[in-house]
Structure formats: structure tokens, C-alpha cells
Write a structure and sequence with these properties.
29% of the residues lie in helices and 34% in strands. The protein is an alpha+beta fold. InterPro entries: 4-PPantetheinyl_Trfase_dom, 4-PPantetheinyl_Trfase_dom_sf.
Length: 208
């Protein structure tokens, strides 16, 4: 079972990352899915998405949970029945979960050239310290996207915009951490963020 990485963020928070190498059948077979989850996975047109969905259930098992312990609210935010906070991500051949006593968010993204083309859609303040022709620009933009996606997952509030409401403080990829802010409806919220790279992917996560 390819648990790829486990990170103890602090005494209340853990990140686990799965490398999806198994077939659909070998991921599906050992799981006991509730009816809603079974319907959802069977309705997916892409086997890549199916395997991502199932690998997340294996990650739940690594934390001592089952599919029955997980539910989603009206905004699509995942929750655990025991009251702990959870955030979930999967991208191509990797999936990840963060579980904590506090609100958290996580995102995994594949590093791709096209992020430079869409940067104007999610970057504003950050352009002040980004050199877009820098060879590291794809890596740094992927970090920014991952942090903002993690913030969005944590807050799960319709109407929030990456470009207007989320701000990532200057960083270098080698830092592995920075600070991010949410500025929304006259209130400001500060978050600690961390990120890591592996096999052409970037994982970012945020905690208060």
C-alpha cells in the first residue's frame, strides 16, 4: 500500500500523501463504501478520478477512519463525524489528506507550463515579487495556486475569489513555508502555510 509520505505538522495536525499506483480493482476491493460514495465513484467517467477517489478512502484508513466517518456539507466541504477537521485533495497520481483539531486546507497540483497562461486569473499582489520569465516561475506559481486553493477549501465560502481575497506573502521555493492572508468583507485572517515538491507535483497546506 503506497503511503508516500506522512508529515507531522504539529501535535494536532497530520498530513498523509498517497501515490496512486494500484489498479481500480485493487483499490476498490478492500473498501466498504456507503451507498452515496459507491454511486459517486461508479458514476465517474475517468478511471483516474475513480482511483483518486478510492485512494482517499485508503488514506482515511491510515488515519483510523472509514468512508462512513466522512460526510460533506452543502458547500461541498468534507467533515469527520468525530469533530476533527479534514481537507482532501487528489491530482493525477497523488492524493492527500490533512486532519487536525483546527480548520485546515490542502492541495496537490501537478507542475505544468499552462499555469503561466492562467496566472492573471489568480495572481494580483504576488506579481510584485514574481519574475514571470524566471525559470522557477512555474514552481512558484504552483505554490501560490496550491496555497490559495487550500485557503478556499478551508473557508468554503461561496463568493471568495483567489485574486481578490487571498494574498500570499513573498517566498522562495526553497523556504518550504510562508504566510497567507484572507481579506474578505472587511475582515483579515492570517494563516501559516507550508509546501513541498515531489516528482513534478507540489503539495501546499494551510493552518491557522
Amino acid at each position: 500500500m503506497p503511503l508516500y509520505k506522512s508529515i507531522s505538522v504539529n501535535s494536532q495536525t497530520t498530513v498523509k500523501i498517497w501515490k496512486i499506483e494500484e489498479s481500480y480493482d485493487s483499490l476498490f476491493q478492500p473498501l466498504d463504501l456507503k451507498p452515496q460514495s459507491l454511486k459517486r465513484v461508479l458514476g465517474m467517467k475517468s478511471e483516474l478520478h475513480q482511483r483518486g477517489f478510492l485512494s482517499v478512502r485508503h488514506l482515511l484508513h491510515e488515519f483510523g477512519y472509514t468512508d462512513q466517518d466522512l460526510f460533506y456539507d452543502d458547500n461541498g466541504k468534507p467533515h469527520l463525524k468525530d469533530g476533527k477537521h479534514i481537507s482532501i485533495t487528489h491530482s493525477f497520481t497523488f492524493s492527500g489528506i490533512i486532519v487536525s483539531d483546527k480548520e485546515v486546507g490542502i492541495d496537490i497540483e501537478k507542475q505544468r507550463e499552462k499555469i503561466k497562461i492562467i496566472a492573471h486569473k489568480f495572481v494580483d499582489y504576488e506579481f510584485s515579487y514574481l519574475n514571470t520569465i524566471d525559470e522557477d516561475s512555474i514552481r512558484r506559481l504552483t505554490v501560490i495556486w496550491g496555497i490559495k486553493e487550500s485557503l478556499y477549501k478551508l473557508f468554503a465560502t461561496p463568493g471568495m475569489l483567489f485574486k481578490e481575497h487571498f494574498l500570499v506573502i513573498p517566498f522562495m521555493v526553497e523556504d518550504g513555508k510562508t504566510v497567507a492572508w484572507i481579506d474578505y468583507k472587511g475582515k483579515k485572517y492570517r494563516y501559516t502555510t507550508a509546501f513541498l515538491e515531489f516528482e513534478g507535483f507540489t503539495c501546499a497546506y494551510v493552518v491557522p
